[in-house]
Design brief:
CATH class of the largest domain: Alpha Beta
Strand order of the largest sheet: 3-2-1-4-5-6-7
CATH architecture of the largest domain: 3-Layer(aba) Sandwich
Largest sheet: 7 strands, parallel
CATH superfamily of the largest domain: NAD(P)-binding Rossmann-like Domain
Distance between the termini: 28 Å
Number of domains: 2
């Protein structure tokens, strides 16, 4: 399928590894110019070079913490007139809620709620003026299904959903959409931390915890980042203009609810 994205410009946050990189790769494959971001300059440049080689796309890299105002400004300046924003940021490490002090709570809220909102504020009016915009926020399956140890991550991301749900309806008539991707357990670096926390909580080794995790997923496996990237690219496509304010759960059937 031609996604109708050739010549579009996409900002993809936290994209040197994992799900962010997969989204950047698929958007590049669809014909977008990509502006990537990551804290580790060396890893980011390596990812950008790999995507250029694989897709032939123009890829620019802006290193730094996406929560910093200067990095945000540099990212948006590099994009010029962004048509697509993929909001992504690493979640706080899994830990019990009793272990969270005020500083940790505020840091989690800033990274996973405040920062993506600030980025939306900076790009959305231009999208409205140009009558095309796609904003995809990567959050977590824990928004729908309780995951022990991810209380701070879940709380911040639920807040992001609530804040942007109304914004999505406000700009829908301008062909600007805002949607959410909710990943379950994917084969990324983040999974290692989740499995380490699970192993400690269960009193088992990491391999056993991982095996138990797979068994709880109806698909009996962890997700592959490329699958996630493809879903992101579709939500950014010209054909997805009638989908907005929605949360797409990608978890191999792990969530047991009907809705």
């Amino acid at each position: 399928m031609d996604l109708g994205l050739s010549g579009r410009t996409a900002i993809v946050c936290a994209s040197s590894h994992g799900l962010g990189r997969a989204c950047a790769t698929e958007l590049a494959r669809a014909g977008c110019r990509i502006v990537m971001n990551g804290r580790d300059r060396e890893a980011l440049e390596a990812a950008a070079a790999a995507i250029r080689a694989e897709t032939g796309a123009t890829v620019e890299a802006v290193a730094g913490d996406i929560g910093d105002d200067g990095v945000q400004s540099e990212l948006i300046a590099a994009a010029g007139t962004p048509d697509i924003l993929v909001n992504n940021n690493g979640g706080p490490p899994p830990r019990g809620f009793r272990d969270l002090d005020a500083d940790a709570i505020h840091a989690g809220l800033d990274a996973n709620m405040v920062t993506p909102i600030r980025l939306v504020q900076q790009v959305i009016d231009g999208m409205v003026e140009r009558r095309f915009g796609r904003i995809v926020c990567i959050t977590s399956a824990s928004v729908k299904a309780v995951t022990l140890g991810l209380d701070l991550s879940s709380g911040a991301r639920i807040g992001l959903h609530g804040f942007l749900a109304g914004v999505a309806r406000e700009v829908a008539s301008a062909n600007v959409t805002i949607n959410f991707l909710l990943p379950g357990l994917f084969a990324t670096r983040r999974l290692d931390g989740v499995m380490a926390f699970a192993a400690k909580s269960q009193g088992v080794d990491a391999e056993t915890a991982a095996a138990r995790g797979r068994e709880r997923i109806p698909a009996r496996r962890f997700g592959e980042p490329a699958e996630f990237g493809a879903a992101c690219a579709f939500l950014c496509s010209a054909q997805a203009g009638y989908i907005t304010g929605q949360s797409l759960l990608i978890d191999g059937g792990g969530y047991p609810g009907v809705l």
